[in-house]
Amino acid sequence: MKEVRLNNGVMMPALGFGVYQIPAEDTERAVSEALGTGYRMIDTAASYFNEEQVGDALRHSGLKREEVFVTTKLWVQDYEYEDALRAFDKSARLLGLDYVDLYLLHKPYGNYYAAWRAAERLYKEGRVKAIGVTSFSDERLQDLFLHNEVKPAVNQLETHPFFQQEASNAFLSQEGIQHEAWAPFAEGKNDIWNNPVLKAIAGKHGRTVAQVVLRWLNQRGVVVIPKTVRRERMAENLDIFGFTLTGQEMQAIAGLDTGRSSIYDDTDLATTKYIGTHRIHD
Ligand SMILES: NC(=O)c1ccc[n+]([C@@H]2O[C@H](COP(=O)([O-])OP(=O)(O)OC[C@H]3O[C@@H](n4cnc5c(N)ncnc54)[C@H](OP(=O)(O)O)[C@@H]3O)[C@@H](O)[C@H]2O)c1
Predict the structure, then answer these.
(1) Is 48 a residue of the active site?
(2) Among 2, 96, 209, 281, which residue's Cβ finds the most Cβ atoms within 10 Å?
């Protein structure tokens, strides 16, 4: 598996397996198959309610702890300092791990400064190997690292052909923060699988639209974590390093950018209120 080096020296696989929206009862099977297919990075979150089943799959895989890179995320409800430490303990217990490779603040709402300081403590204690954020705008991210000690290693952002995040990609690269894509396939929106530009490029390489999208992200230096519950698609999504998109093809895909989210609008007050106050436990 190809890897990237994070700003603290930790090595992270360039491609992993996302488990958002995989029901708990299907997660152990899906993660076991993904590990069997060759994935060595799993991306979960407290709010996905499947950390325990990810842990079951890891335990039964026969792989050594250091062979698999595990990411989980802290939900906004637990963004006070002590709450964050407690929430981490719960995630680690459910996962059955004594350390997590990457711990992310899941959303840029609430008291994320307190949450970040808790994440810094976990990092210093060695309970997490790297810390980062998701869906932080460049300004919020900059403010966070200007007023804290540990610079985030990763910002996981919605990134796909219809929302390419070009400015954030440049900012993150300049700051040495790894850009990771969530929803690399836009969760199937915008009729991505039938997009004529992507289909034409896929046809030229004898590849699929999914492989072209993942390779395009990879060639932009973006880490990807596609989700699928189907074994044949797991293999398809992993097999992206045997071809290279030309500059012209990269340009053609650049032309698909709409500059806005296909999934949720973080400038919409009703949406941000809902997410920022959503509770995942009592
Ligand atoms: N930080 C955040 O706030 C955040 C938000 C969303 C997601 N994420 C992370 O990012 C990961 C990926 O994003 P996502 O799950 O939202 O969406 P996604 O990976 O963009 O798309 C998943 C969809 O694509 C389908 N699919 C996967 N591979 C395919 C292929 N080769 N051909 C055709 N269809 C294919 C899947 O269907 P099947 O399963 O039926 O194959 C599913 O419907 C998540 O699992 C999660 O770990 C993070």
Answers:
(1) yes
(2) 209
CA of residue 109 to ligand 1 center, whole Å: 23
pLDDT value, residue 267: 86
| Residue 242 alpha carbon to ligand 1 centre in Å | 22
* Residue 134: band (very low, low, confident or very high) from pLDDT cuts 50, 70, 90: very high
How many angstroms is it from 37 CA to the middle of ligand 1? 17
Please say whether the beta carbons of 134 and 104 come within 8 A.
Answer: yes
Q: Please report whether residue 282 resides in a domain.
A: no
Whether ligand 1 lies within 6 angstroms of the CB of 18 is answered as yes
What is the pLDDT averaged over residues 58-74?
Answer: 98
CA-nearest residue for atom 15, ligand 1, is: 227
The token duo for 219 is 């060639």
Contact 226, 20 (CB under 8 A): no
In a domain, 266, yes or no: yes
What would the pLDDT profile of 184-220 be if each residue is shown by its tens digit?
999 999 999 999 999 999 999 999 999 999 999 999 9
* One-letter amino acid of 60: H
Per the structure, the complete domain to which residue 271 belongs is given by 3-277
User: Which atom of ligand 1 is closest in space to residue 230's alpha carbon?
Assistant: 41
Task: Kindly give the number of the ligand 1 atom that is closest to the alpha carbon of 71.
Answer: 47
Question: What is the band of 264 on the pLDDT scale with cuts at 50, 70, 90?
Answer: confident
- 47 CB less than 6 Å from ligand 1? no
Q: Count the domains in the chain.
A: 1
Which strand ranges, in their side-by-side order, compose the sheet holding 128-134? 17-18, 41-43, 69-74, 100-105, 128-134, 154-158, 178-182, 223-224
